[in-house]
Amino acid sequence: MYRRTLGALLIAGGLLLVGCSAPSPAIQDNPQTQPEAETSWPGWYRADTPLQTTGSGGWTLHAAALGADSARAASAALQHARKNLSSQLSEQLEQVRRSVASTEAAKDTGVAESSFVMALRKAERELGALAERERTEAQLSDEASSWRAFVEVRMDKQVLTRHLEQALSSHATAWQALRGSDGYRLWGAGG
């Protein structure tokens, strides 16, 4: 009896595992969807390099999304682009901060102190809202039941610096050490 029950449980568990591991094309967690054919992308849209450094000191990022109409698709793409821009700039800024914090000269600046790190994280969460929409294009998708929008957002380094200066005013020594570092000066200056 126990063997029969154990065997039935193993078979049921195996079937459940196989059934749950099959991909489901009807469910999408990610609101950003990439177009099926690159030929339908606008010429300026670059899905392969999400965060690009501009020649004038700043960054651009592209995103795409689907929506029931062109306005909803554009809104979703803009939201996604701003979120990704904020996330990627935050990661890069953390690399610069860690680099500065690892130097002997930064020991007394407070760059490694938790209060500065927390203030920096709070300021970083607001970066997406500072990004400006540069371009938007919407197209009727191949299925003709939805719209696909492409968006480019831009963040100028001057805007980022002013925002961080204001947000980190209570950590002036740490902020000046970060801002004055080679890593921060060179960050976003490519082209």
DSSP strand tally: 4
- Determine the structural class based on helices, strands and strand pairing: alpha+beta
Reported for the largest beta sheet, the result is: 4 strands, antiparallel
* Structural Rg: 23 Å
Inertia-based shape: elongated
Tally of alpha and pi helices: 7
Write the layout of secondary structure elements.
Blueprint: H1 2-21, E1 51-54, E2 58-67, H2 70-101, H3 114-124, H4 127-130, E3 132-140, E4 147-156, H5 157-167, H6 172-179, H7 182-186
Antiparallel strand pairs: 1-2, 2-4, 3-4
Descriptive tags:
single chain; 191 residues; alpha+beta; 4-stranded antiparallel beta sheet; elongated
Task: Give a written overview of the molecule.
With 191 residues, this protein is of the alpha+beta class. It has seven helices and four strands; from the N terminus they run αββαααββααα. The chain has helices at 2-21, 70-101, 114-124, 127-130, 157-167, 172-179, 182-186, and strands spanning 51-54, 58-67, 132-140, 147-156.
